[in-house]
UniProtKB/TrEMBL annotation, chains A, B:
This is PLP-dependent aminotransferase family protein. It comes from Marinomonas piezotolerans. SUPFAM superfamilies: PLP-dependent transferases, Winged helix' DNA-binding domain. Gene3D superfamilies: Aspartate Aminotransferase, domain 1 (3.90.1150.10), Type I PLP-dependent aspartate aminotransferase-like (Major domain) (3.40.640.10), Winged helix-like DNA-binding domain superfamily/Winged helix DNA-binding domain (1.10.10.10). In the C-terminal section; belongs to the class-I pyridoxal-phosphate-dependent aminotransferase family. Residues 69-81 have a biased composition (Polar residues). SMART domains: HTH_GNTR. Residues 1-69 form the HTH gntR-type domain.
Length: 473, 473
């Protein structure tokens, strides 16, 4: 390994482990050269490497710093959903979104598919291809209904990064996170029960609530700190809530990471009222900070947290591999998973297990989360420049979607239709409410198209708004 | 094509299209030689080909005949299940069956996995491997939630063989037939509803009933004609049944094909009482007669039949590709399929579509159903020779499982445990009842092990029974 790479490694480690904090000034080039007995240009090269990884930033005439979190003074408002349990509607709109044909859409800001063109996925695809060629018969038979043992072992190792101690027997592999959420909802509740959710909330989770004959109670949610614990406690006092379903780490659609003390407080609340927490961690590994934040599951003393995740956002949705660590609900989860779809295809599980074991997954995540962080800043910049001044927007701490709140006169249901006619797809806000609220909001992704295309999409949206509401500009 | 192959083709066509019926004498060798202007040995070669396909049988000194259905004078009794709707139990036993480790089991008669070693599957595996090598990116993204269009087109063509007119938009692809059944149950009913089923009944269907918070009403079922329409009508008069779930073509576990007039009558009954029929056709293409019998769905005038099937029994369960033709319930089915597991992996769907399009599936089915028919006779022979005289057994008209009814003093739950200790796995009868009935029955498969191993398994079972009940021999 070259000298500069070695030095970059050491600095990266110090930053990632919090030895230097956001905003801290880093040692000067001269200081490091002396300390490590290397040349000035070697230190400069090391800093340049870390700059491309966004771990340091150069300030002219001041030196190198650990970047602070960008300050955001135009956050969306804390949500104010209806204060009673309701049946979920909006399926027609979800179906519409899911049926969107790429052929008609040049600029796709509506979906939440990851970037799947990165070279760090090559080893996985290669091993999947090799498995199909060398061991096609491995994929033919019925496999373990809990999932392939090699994958479950790797998943229990991966869980350490989110602070969870899982045995491979605690893990049940599913057909993606959608099945995980659906199975967990059915495992912890009976028809008619009430599930508390964040508001806005991922539409797939709400549709699973609807299909399981449950009612959704949307809880006010802050765009940077997550579900309001005060509002949740009031709701728990008022309604016989059976479980809380949350996405606390790199939330979809808001992008926040719930602070750790709030995660702990949420867990304590669940304990106090003796209810289950279904924790959707699908974007958890895509937070931009390192090490990744701990999951609520990390604080689980009595098995009431059902952690759901998948490789759909970190690797590729087409893998259809997700999982559940269901704590005390493991047996119910195993039963419902079996009746839902029997076992999952074996070869993708084996290939993913190998990808994890050989470090390919870590390499991929390290690369892709930097890409997403860069794309976030680009998209935020385009929004700031082109959209109405009064537009509010989240600054995600992970994942690859953000949430836009337009001035109230903008109707995103209409805007979505108009944008579609111009080849731009966005996800209208009402998808993320059980009852069609958030009609002046939308979700935009910044994962798998170029910054140029995204900017072009934003410009088209701006023009459409301008045509109806010139006063906003 | 050689002369004998051409002649065999012509004779095969005549037999398969019913020009010669079961039991009919076929033209003599001399007669055919004269008619077709070919040599005696050519005709003999053609007949030998058809003999290996079990389409003709030679009777010494009498000539060649179309085989009659083997007569069966020791059929199991018509079932007499409890006459009220009940909660399904037996999950522990099902889990036990599913968790069976091949490592501990030399002779596997318990599962219902097809023979996956046949060469006719090679083109499918080859194209799946090619797809993974040449177009790995096709498998990465979210696909159509209704299933890949090419596969749905091929499935609508395949449906013609079972008498069904389906448009590709009528078809929703699922993760195997288990998901299909589970989705259909949830689409046609609400928690607490009653579903009428055959008795004995496939355990996976019953566990899906349990998980959907439904009640099962088991209906008496004849081992050769299927569900009793008289008993069903009485039940319909007495209970608010929401749907009937049946496997009328190559039933699991009994193996019968419900006669076509009874299928029609069942459909009329459903019309009269205005309820849905969930038709499990998973073994339908594996019936030993040609052309295959029509599905109940073929008589569906008003979209009340939800046809469920998959490639798990015809090709390989590890493919995890099934489908639903849901008639008037299509929209509900699409919704529940989406929340259950989002879409299915794309590459297996494309590979299967190609397998169907190029005729590989037809070739495979033609070969494998003959293999199964031969194995059925071998297993029936072994049962007749080794098991107690009073043992009753079905003679399946398709698929690869049969049902054994021992004298009442034999407890198959105990027998299953004992056999397992000797490396033989069987599926105990109580798995196939909602409430643990059929304790003197078991299901045996004859798909994927050798006749020698199956015979050895039967001998071990016979010894175990003999040790406890010497009087039975």
């Amino acid at each position: 390994m070259s000298l500069y790479a070695e030095l970059a490694d050491r600095l990266r480690e110090h930053i990632e482990h919090g030895f230097y904090k956001p905003g801290d000034k880093l040692p000067s080039v001269r200081q490091l050269a002396t300390e490590h007995g290397v040349s000035i240009s070697t230190v400069q090269e090391a800093y340049r490497t870390l700059e491309t990884e966004r771990l340091v930033e150069a300030k002219p005439k001041s030196g190198y710093f650990v970047p602070s979190q960008p300050h955001n003074d135009n956050l969306p408002h804390t949500s104010r959903p209806p204060q009673r349990p309701l049946d979920v509607s909006q399926w027609e709109q979800v179906l519409n979104l899911l049926s969107n044909r790429p052929a008609n859409t040049r600029i796709q800001l509506q979906h939440a598919a990851p970037d799947m063109t990165v070279s760090t996925l090559t080893p996985l695809l290669k091993s999947l291809s090799d498995l199909h060629r060398q061991h096609p018969d491995w994929g033919l038979g019925y496999g373990d209904i809990r999932g392939h043992i090699e994958l479950r072992e790797q998943l229990s190792r991966l869980a350490v990064a989110s602070g969870c101690q899982l045995h491979h027997d605690d893990v049940v592999v599913t057909s993606g996170c959608q099945e995980a959420l659906s199975v967990c909802l059915r495992a912890v509740s009976a028809p008619g029960d009430i599930i508390a959710i964040e508001s806005p909330c991922f539409y797939g989770a709400m549709q699973a609530i609807k299909a399981a004959n449950l009612k959704a109670l949307e809880i006010p949610t802050h765009p940077e700190h997550g579900i309001s614990l005060e509002a949740l406690q009031l709701a728990l006092d008022q309604w016989p809530i059976k479980a809380i379903l949350v996405t606390p780490t790199a939330n979809n659609p808001l992008g926040y990471v719930m602070p750790e003390d709030k995660k702990q407080a949420l867990y304590k609340l669940a304990q106090e009222y003796d209810i289950a927490i279904i924790e959707d961690d699908i974007y958890g590994d895509l937070t931009y900070e390192f090490p990744r934040p701990r999951a609520i599951k990390a604080f689980d003393e009595d098995g009431r947290v059902l952690l759901c995740s998948s490789f759909s956002k970190t690797v590729a949705p087409g893998m259809r591999v997700g999982w559940i660590a269901a704590g005390r609900y493991r047996d119910q989860v195993t039963h419902i998973k079996y009746v839902s779809s029997s076992m999952c295809p074996t070869l993708s599980q084996i290939a993913l297990a190998k990808f994890l074991r050989l470090g390919g997954y870590d390499r991929h995540i390290r690369k892709i989360r930097n890409t997403y962080a860069t794309s976030r800043d680009q998209l935020l910049q385009a929004i700031k420049i082109h959209l109405p001044n009064a537009t509010r927007v989240t600054c995600p701490a992970g994942g690859f979607v953000l949430w836009v709140e337009f001035p109230p006169e903008v109707d995103t249901t209409k805007l979505t239709e108009q944008a579609q006619e111009h080849g731009v797809a966005i996800a209208s806000g009402s998808l993320f409410s059980a009852t069609g609220k958030y009609r002046s909001c939308c979700r935009l992704n910044y994962s798998d198209q170029t910054a140029e295309l995204r900017t072009e999409g934003i410009k088209i949206i701006a023009q459409l708004i301008k045509a109806e509401h010139p006063n906003l500009f």
